[in-house]
């Protein structure tokens, strides 16, 4: 079963955790494939039925994970390559005609850097719905009507994000919703280096343990595609994983079959994680950790995601034309 004590929003990590402890390795009701194109690795996890959803601890649907190269934030060509990979995967799950209205929602708190990804992406989206309505003769036929909003968070607005988004959906009547949010990872090496696309919607705030009412086709009546990047990692999970690395190294160095080896192999890692959580929480609370260069990274990733969305939603335009419009 999925290990609920370890916080992660990534389907690929949930799958890995199950495979680490289960026999056989395959998970019934879950299908996974990998590919690599233009030095960008993509993993697709499909949760096909209720049995798979129960084991994975998340809704049925398709979860696409794009791994970002380490040097992406310093290389414009690599940024564009990742953006085009994102656009290609997003197009594969969108499946809507060019005249359909798309609403892009940037979830998160723009005053908190690790949580500001959604609002920053929205600031770079090519919005065209108002132009299609007000000056239709000036707009090319191939331009899709797109609108966007950053609804803020409960602490800023006094309103649930789901209430705001539902009201907009009822008024604007978009055909599909794309929402962007910051996520949590269980591994440090995936923080700010992974983009996940999911077709089952999202619960705002889930990444930091502040789960609100979900945004999904079930609650809004239209398809909801979620795009997220893990920008934080739970401190207890980070400490637990660090100790696991030490244990694994000691196991490799120990004499196989010896007493010390047996002690190390007999450690229950889930109990260890619970113990670490119990020890840390009274001292530091529910601590969430993010890298020190998060300001620059969020700016870079927000540009990649916005470009990917713009390319997917406006296939009739070149990226250079989209950037000219935004500038």
UniProtKB/TrEMBL annotation:
Keyword terms, alphabetized: Hydrolase, Protease, Zymogen
Q: Which GO terms describe its biological process?
A: proteolysis; spore germination
What happens to this protein after translation, modification-wise? Autoproteolytically processed. The inactive tetrameric zymogen termed p46 autoprocesses to a smaller form termed p41, which is active only during spore germination.
The catalytic activity, as recorded, is: Endopeptidase action with P4 Glu or Asp, P1 preferably Glu > Asp, P1' hydrophobic and P2' Ala
Give the highest taxon in the source lineage: Bacteria
Q: Which Pfam families match?
A: Peptidase_A25
Q: Which residues form the propeptide?
A: 1-9
Q: Gene3D superfamilies from the xrefs?
A: HybD-like (3.40.50.1450)
The EC code for this enzyme is 3.4.24.78
InterPro entries for this protein: Pept_HybD-like_dom_sf (IPR023430), Peptidase_A25 (IPR005080)
Entry similarity comment: Belongs to the peptidase A25 family.
Q: What does this protein do?
A: Initiates the rapid degradation of small, acid-soluble proteins during spore germination.
HAMAP family recorded for this chain?
Germination_prot
Subunit text: Homotetramer.
Q: What is this protein called?
A: Germination protease
Source organism per entry reads Clostridium bornimense
Tell me the organism's taxonomic lineage: Bacteria, Bacillati, Bacillota, Clostridia, Eubacteriales
């Amino acid at each position: 079963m999925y290990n609920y004590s370890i916080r992660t929003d990534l389907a690929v990590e949930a799958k890995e955790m199950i495979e680490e402890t289960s026999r056989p390795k395959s998970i019934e009701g879950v299908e996974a494939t990998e590919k690599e194109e233009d030095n960008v690795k993509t993993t697709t996890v499909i949760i096909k039925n209720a049995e798979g959803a129960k084991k994975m601890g998340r809704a049925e649907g398709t979860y696409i994970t794009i791994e970002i190269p380490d040097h992406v934030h310093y290389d414009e060509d690599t940024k564009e390559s990742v953006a085009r990979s994102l656009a290609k995967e997003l197009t594969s799950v969108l499946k809507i005609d060019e005249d359909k209205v798309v609403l892009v929602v940037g979830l998160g708190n723009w005053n908190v850097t690790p949580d500001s990804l959604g609002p920053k992406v929205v600031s770079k989206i090519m919005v065209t719905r108002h132009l299609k309505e007000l000056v239709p003769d000036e707009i090319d036929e191939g331009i899709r009507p797109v609108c966007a909003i950053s609804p803020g968070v409960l602490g800023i607005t006094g309103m649930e994000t789901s209430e705001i988004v539902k009201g907009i959906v009822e008024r604007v009547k978009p055909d599909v919703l794309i929402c962007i949010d910051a996520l949590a990872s269980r591994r440090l090496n995936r923080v700010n280096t992974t983009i996940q696309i999911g077709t089952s919607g999202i619960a705002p705030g889930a990444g930091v343990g502040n789960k609100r009412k979900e945004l999904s086709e079930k609650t809004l009546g239209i398809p909801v595609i979620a795009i997220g990047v893990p920008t934080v990692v739970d401190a207890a999970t980070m400490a637990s994983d660090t100790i696991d690395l030490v244990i694994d190294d000691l196991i490799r160095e120990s004499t196989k079959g010896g007493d010390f080896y047996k002690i190390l192999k007999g450690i229950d890692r889930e109990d260890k994680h619970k113990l670490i959580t119990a020890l840390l929480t009274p001292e530091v609370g529910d601590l969430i950790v993010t890298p020190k260069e998060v300001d620059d990274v969020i700016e870079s990733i927000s540009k990649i995601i916005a470009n990917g969305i713009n390319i997917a939603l406006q296939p009739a335009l070149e990226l250079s034309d989209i950037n000219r419009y935004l500038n």
